[in-house]
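Section 5: illustrative case.
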């Protein structure tokens, strides 16, 4: 699973518009500010706040 570098450059958290941490090995994208984890399915980031899971 690998996201294109161009996509990583333009992605931002949909809630706070902040920077993201990419954890492709776990199939997730994390927003440290909002403490949310967004899923990646079939190499497509699911950037929906309603589908994000809270980070501990």
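Designed sequence:
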């Amino acid at each position: 699973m690998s996201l294109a570098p161009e996509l990583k450059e333009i992605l931002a958290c949909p809630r706070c518009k902040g920077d993201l941490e990419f954890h492709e090995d776990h199939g997730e994208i994390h927003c440290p500010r909002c403490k949310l984890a967004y899923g990646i399915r079939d190499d497509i980031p699911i950037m929906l706040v309603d589908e994000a899971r809270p980070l501990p």
